[in-house]
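Researcher: First entry.
Model:
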Amino acid sequence: MKVLIVGSGGREHSLAEAFAKDIKKSDIYVAPGNGGIALDYKCLPLRNKEEIISWCKDNRPDLVMVGPEQYLAEGLSNSLNAEGIPCVGPSQEAAKIESSKIFAKTLMTKYHIPTASYVAFEDKDQALAYVRYMGKYPLVIKANGLAAGKGVIIAENQKQAEYAIQALENKVVVEEYLKGWEVSLFVITDGKDFKTTIFSQDHKQLGENDTGPNTGGMGAFAPVKEAESYRKQIEEQIVAPILEGLKAEGCPYKGFLYCGLMITEEGPKVLEFNCRLGDPETQAILPLLQTSFTEVCYAILNNKVSDLKLEWSPQSSVCVVLASQGYPGTFPTGFPVIINSPITSKIFFAGVENKDGQLITSGGRVLSLVALGKNLSEARRKVYQDINKVNFTGKYFRRDISLRKNKC
């Protein structure tokens, strides 16, 4: 069996590790991957949709797993399936659930899915006029298109709202600010049936106590026991209606659907949908999955999700991202990554490259460390002990991953 994983980050590294439980590492390819992933897996210098399709036509992988949203928004799944190459990922049309905030919000409104109230704007002048008129803050300003997890700005006042709108593209969504606590849930669906995973919780903001700008994610943990009492409500009022809505709109969803949720005093509400597995939640969840990940993927491809039985470890998982100082803004790179043994945590590489046999930093989120424990406290203790054994100039990380108080 030959598997191609598309992407270059920690999520893709963790996907490779999940597949490696079922098949030989030599049969797993990652495109383009990174210098850290290449220590264990074959990385291919495929940099765009066309190059990926060409390689797949020549090499005929048994399965393609798409990590980043950009490729799905560009229609990679459509193209591969048209060539008879099985691809785990929604169609370009269904991927609009993430690639267009306006599409997603319109769909949620139409199918009565609980979410924040919003106003969508086609140009900045209209949005600026609106926030100048509004007197109630905070407000949430979102870019309409893809923004790698960084297109959401919480504006505490008019000045911040105006700055956010100017910084984003022309089309923006201005949303009501929801109060509560966040949780993430992945949906596994073949377009007809669905199953949901354990809950995880991402820590998106750069600084401790959820301060600073939004990032692609600074860490995550799983499971989130406080969310379990909401599972049935989420599945009945959010998951089932959005999948039915997509089907009714002519774009049935097949793949992994990420639900970013806020648990409010009124109940769960949708913050966002993503058309793929999230990063870093994937790194926290997959090590706890005891069902074969390959089996999960084939259940999606073969319309057998109804028969899928998900088994999970009783342990807890904590993932902490080590980033370059300056991220998510500008930051220097090229610093050696030094790892001192022994490390019990799993390392998932992201922004690194291999230069003459030495891993050096090359991105904002450099790597993530994931530890398992019999409970969150033990997993947290293990991962933070191991962080001291991984060093590079400008290493930055949050010290409070998994300590958030989940109360409305």
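Researcher: Second entry.
Model:
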Amino acid sequence: MVRLPAMFVICILAVPLLPALGSEPPSTPVPTVGVTAASHLVGSGGHSYLDEKNTKFIEQVALHYDKEDNIIVGCLSGVRSELASADLIAAGFKNVKNMEGGYMAWVENGLAVNKPLVQEEL
């Protein structure tokens, strides 16, 4: 019997769920930026970083951003953020980029991560 690594098995099991979640692959290519470039763009203050795709994502973004604002969208691996970026572009946002590889690539490239302070228990 061949044993597959747990991560591989989880990925195989998750694939059939993607269409059921209502997220179709983008029909047109989504502009993409690597994590190092994303770090520089966000750090320069000219771009905002978003990390959330939910049922009210477009409405929430529209409340806080103009259609001309520079937005970089990320997630854990870059898959959901690609879908979210495509949704924003389809809604008329003009300067949206997907962060390729997501948070995992960010950490793998040694980029800074702000971790919340843990309060000591009293």
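Model: Note on the second entry: Residues 31-108 form a domain with the Oxidized Rhodanese; domain 1 fold (CATH 3.40.250.10).
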